Every structure is written in structure tokens, then in C-alpha cells.
TrEMBL record:
Organism of derivation: Brevibacillus aydinogluensis
This protein's name: CoA-transferase
InterPro entries: CoA-transferase_III_domain (IPR050483), CoA-Trfase_fam_III (IPR003673), CoA-Trfase_III_dom3_sf (IPR044855), CoA-Trfase_III_dom_1_sf (IPR023606)
Keywords: Transferase
GO molecular-function terms, A-Z: CoA-transferase activity
Key word Mitochondrion present: no
Domain of life: Bacteria
Segment forming the signal sequence: none
Amino acid sequence: MQQALQNMRVVDLTQVLAGPYCTMVLGDLGADVIKVEKYPDGDDTRTMRPFVKDESYCYMMVNRNKRGIRLNIKEEAGRAILYDLVKTADVFIENFRPGTTCKLGIDYETLRAVNPGLIYCSISGYGQTGPYSHKGGFDIMAQGLSGIMSMTGEKGGRPVKSGIAIHDIAAGVTALYSILAAYVHKIRTGEGQYIDLSLVDSGLAWTVWEAAAYFGAGEVSGPNGSAHRVSAPYQGFQTKNGHILIGAANQKLWERFCQDVIDRPELLEDPRFITNSDRIRHVDELEAIIREIIIREESQYWLEKLDKAGIPSGPIYRYDETMNDPHIRAREMIIEYEHPAAGPIVNLGFPAKFSKTPGQVRRPAPCLGQHTREVLRELKYSEEAIRELEENQII
């Protein structure tokens, strides 16, 4: 089956989450991704539980559709192999702390001399420039600096990090679309280029409504529970047996909500709630009124009424409930395939449904060093040379 990126080759020196997520999606779309893992222990994620037959499930989640080699690039012979690999590549991606690639001799200027058309992407905590560029940075530090932690949680509570690694995934997605844009430019002109992106910048770029409040009105967004910053009612409410989400996010939906769902048409004449702006100004009073009504009945009762009225709504699931929801299953967001060591693997599916070039699982995540010999043979290394590299602990 044809895939959109089947002629792209990616040399991937990233580990943990942001970079591997990006290169996984490139692989899902057909790119030949060669994951170069450090010698001798490989990607740090390989140590993260849970394990299935000694294989880390965390590692397997974001490293499918890649070939894996184990390479000691601290040694000259290891760098020589990497240079040979870069000569064949369209994309090189790394997530070392700024300055490390220069020390290793794998920085952009060095690799551009090896392959002038190379697209080179660096992912770091804070970026390659600026007063914090030298610092190491993980997702949680980025959540703190971007202000996201200060906006997450309930009013009056302490700062709370997002339930997922939001800056890591944001950086992976930013790297993905940036590489694809650079690849289009390369196809048109033959030119490669350098891409510098950070966890902080990538997540900060997603704070759209919060930036609007700050730049437009000087407002500093704080924690708001499940409530929206510019629409009401648009949040979660407790029912008799659980929690649901209600999104009456415009005037028409608000009117339907009052008339057809909670049977409180008098709220439409209440001066506190006439317009959306009024409702936002008096959101605490509005929330209290709705909360007192919604808690009287079970979740399914309200979800059926909301659905009948055409008002966006839904449950607030535990993750196990999500994984067993019939809609999630019907959308093929849960897939299964075989891993050579771990056996049957369940993974997340492909969020984009292409009509012509769909995502595919062509190979599971590699075992450590699984494809080293295969890749070296493609680079025209002899069996004798490969044995010598193994004996010298280069591969």
C-alpha cells in the first residue's frame, strides 16, 4: 500500500518522548526511520515500567515503525558510521542538551558538510538561544515556565501539572509539522535547513485563549477547574452517580439548555445570564445553580436529554472506560500487532484517517540493536568490518 512519506529517510537520535513521538508518526506515514541508540544501554525509556518479557511498554508505545541500531558515537569509528548514514538521509533529529552535538561532532554545520540537503531538527528544553538555553529541561519544567501549571487545577488550589506530558507531545507535534514543511521546501529546491524548537515554546504556542486574555485585557489566567475561560456553561458537573461535561457554548445552545434540558426558562431573563459575557462575569453563580440541578439525576439521564436537545455533552471517563468505549473502538484507536520479544502488543491507533495513504504498522518497536547489522550491510560494510566494530564495542 502506498504511503505519503515512503521515500523519506530519517536518522533519529532522540530518546524518551518528544522526538520519538515525532519520528513514530513519520514512520507511521511511511518514512524509513533509523533509530540510533546510545551504546551500550540505549534509549532511557527502555528502563521504564511496565515490562513485558523484559521489554519496556513505554518504549514500545512510541518506537514502532523504526529500525534500531546501537552505536557508540563517542568513538571516531562510531561517528564515521553515523556520517555514512547521514549521507543517505533526508532528516536528522536529535534532543541533546544544547552544545552537546558540537562536542560529539554531530552538530548541524558538521553534518551539513556531509549532506548539504539535510533537514536537521533539534529539540531541547529551552531552545538553542536565550538565557536558559544551557539548562536541561523536562516536560514539567516547561509546564511551569509556560504558565500552564498555574492555570491547571481548581480555584484556590496549588499549581497542578497536566495529566499528560503536554509539552513533550506539543514539541513532538511541532517537530513533525516543521520537518514536513522543510521537506516540502527540500523537494522544491533541494535545500536542507536547520530547525530549532523547544518544549517551552511548543507548549506556550498552545495557550491561545490565555494569551488573548493577557494581551487584550491584561488579565492573568488562573486555575479554573473544568470551566472554560470565555464560554459558559462549558464545563464538568457532578451527577447523582458520576460526572459529565456540558458545552452550551453559544447563545442558541444556552437557550436550548435552559428550556429543554433543565427546564429553567426563567434563567434566560436573568440579567446575570443574558449574554455569554454576562454568564462569564457571573460564572460562579451560574455554576452553583446548574450544579444544584444536575446532581439530582444520574449521568445517563442528563446525557440523553442533552443529546436530544443537540447540546454537545459527554462523560468524564476513567482511562479504562475510554479504552472500552465503542466509539473509540469503532474509530480503530486501539490496534494490536506482534513484537518479536514481547509478543502481542496493544497500542494506540492512527488519529488521522487518510483515504489514499493511511498510516500502517509496518514493524514493531525494535529490540536494542536489532537492525544494526542490516543497516551496516546497506551502507556496504563487510561482514569482517562489522565483526571488528562489534569487538571494539562501537556497535
